[in-house]
Amino acid sequence: MTISPVLILDFGSQLTQNIARRIREMEIYSEILPATLPASEVRNRNPRALILSGGPSSVYEKGAPTLDPSLLELGIPVLGICYGMQIIAHVAGGRVERAKVREYGVHLFSPSQKASSLWDSFRPASPVLMSHGDWIQDLPKGFHVTGSTETTPIAAMEDPERKIYGVQFHPEVTQTVSGVDFLSHFLKDICRITPNWTIRGYLDRHVEEIRATVKEDHLVCALSGGIDSTVTALLCYRALGERFHAIFVDNGLLRKGELEGLQADLTTLGIPLEVVDAKAIFLTRLKGVSDPEKKRKIIGKTFIDVFSKETRKRGIVRYLAQGTLYPDVIESVSTFGGPSTVIKSHHNVGGLPSRMPFKLVEPLRELFKDEVRRLGRELGLPDRFVNRQPFPGPGLAIRILGSITPERLSILREADAVVRDEVEKSPFSSELWQYFAVLLPVKSVGVMGDARTYEHVVAIRSVRSVDGMTADVHYLTPELLGRISHRIIASVEGVNRVVFDISPKPPATIEWE
């Protein structure tokens, strides 16, 4: 039976997939399509509702993505978010201009006194995430204002006759306190959609897709031991059996004790695993490279070169599986054809070479970390795998700012081991998304043993997050920070100063590079 989806038209927002995952949490089926898709194809999919994403453009700029006005006449509910709201106003005859005061971050949203069916879940002055430099100056005919903030008079609008709605804020992120309730009310009460999607169905569908893709061929899986690659491996192993081959590449950029711990853990899953020692080639190619984008691209290409060499030993293998997630994709490239901005090239997406000897199999490409954890539990993974802290594919290379040397790798390994040891002994380690050390490209003057020192600076990063798309700083206690700082300076040769990073995402990213 074909399910009529909620269609999300992607105008290039970094948060487009956040909308889809919120809808999946409600067990409602949704699809993301490029905003450039012809209106005829949108109609052919028989959508239950349209949601228009945000985006980095201004509607009045030359070449900005636009909306076919006929999509507003389908007779189904339409919700525009941020740019999506502005493009509705623009094509429907309103006026959008550069805002007098740009809004970035959390602001208080107040529903208007005029009745609106959207605000059942909102109290007066509800916190919402704003991220816009334009605003609607004049409403289109048939619309009225349904909400505002202190600096944006038209922060929400609707045309009740056609069930067309717009909000300037982002309901799909956790910083909008009532955002999930708002989306649920829109889909279930206004659109009258009942649950029709499950994580179990996602699992079964992708096992069948892997079989249909690989057919009788063999597949190599890039297995790092993290939850993403482990779930990918289990899906592929379930689909292919003995035609599945897991390879762990030691790139020389691992944390202290990482390889030994991963080997012990992975063997308990019964997945055949081969470890390839590739430290020399990775570190040789990274020698003297300080630019973070170059690092990521070198690492991405080197991984492919190593896998190519290993698969040649087994004959022709045309498929490579990797645990790419949506946050990797959206920061590297525009996934669904929308004009999203590249934030950084992840080694397994934007860092890959343009010509590949493999066809990629990426069953988790549309999921977020917490959804992958749900999938892992569905597959029967123990908690020690499901709750493993994310560790980037490029490893310590992007936590060493500047060039990578054996000395700097040693310093960071030891400092990071102290951070992890101390935080893991604390009562709140399970609340954290990531906690780690970063080696900065500066030195500072210090006094040790009554003598002047001029040594390295280490930064501590500790964040809470749900999906990795946004993150809040977790302020470690002064006592814990004091212990970490004391241990690092006392035991890690070459460090005389420790600092704490208090930057949320956005505007920062979780990793420093």
Overall description:
The chain is of the alpha/beta class. It is 31% helix and 23% strand. The protein is built from 14 helices and 18 strands. The protein has helices spanning 16-25, 39-44, 83-91, 179-190, 199-214, 227-240, 258-267, 279-286, 292-312, 326-332, 369-378, 383-386, 406-424, 478-491; strands spanning 6-10, 30-34, 49-52, 78-81, 95-111, 126-138, 144-148, 156-159, 164-167, 219-222, 244-250, 273-277, 319-321, 359-361, 434-448, 451-464, 472-473, 495-500. Helix 6 packs across helix 11 and helix 13 (406-424) runs antiparallel to helix 14 (478-491). It starts with 5 loop residues before the first strand and ends in a 13-residue tail after the last strand. Residues 332-336 and 342-352 have low confidence and may be disordered.
What fraction of the residues are assigned to beta strands by DSSP?
A: 15-25%
Number of domains: 3
Basic shape: globular
Radius of gyration: 25 Å
Largest sheet properties: 9 strands, mixed
Distance between the first and last residues' Cα: 45 Å
Mean pLDDT: 88
- Unreliably modeled segments: 332-336, 342-352
CATH superfamily membership of the largest domain: HUPs
Helix content: 25-40%
Structural class: alpha/beta
CATH class call of the largest domain: Alpha Beta
CATH topology of the largest domain: Rossmann fold
Care to count the β-strands? 18
In what order do the strands lie side by side in the largest sheet?
2-1-3-4-9-8-7-5-6
State the gist of this model.
This protein has helices at 16-25, 39-44, 83-91, 179-190, 199-214, 227-240, 258-267, 279-286, 292-312, 326-332, 369-378, 383-386, 406-424, 478-491; strands at residues 6-10, 30-34, 49-52, 78-81, 95-111, 126-138, 144-148, 156-159, 164-167, 219-222, 244-250, 273-277, 319-321, 359-361, 434-448, 451-464, 472-473, 495-500.
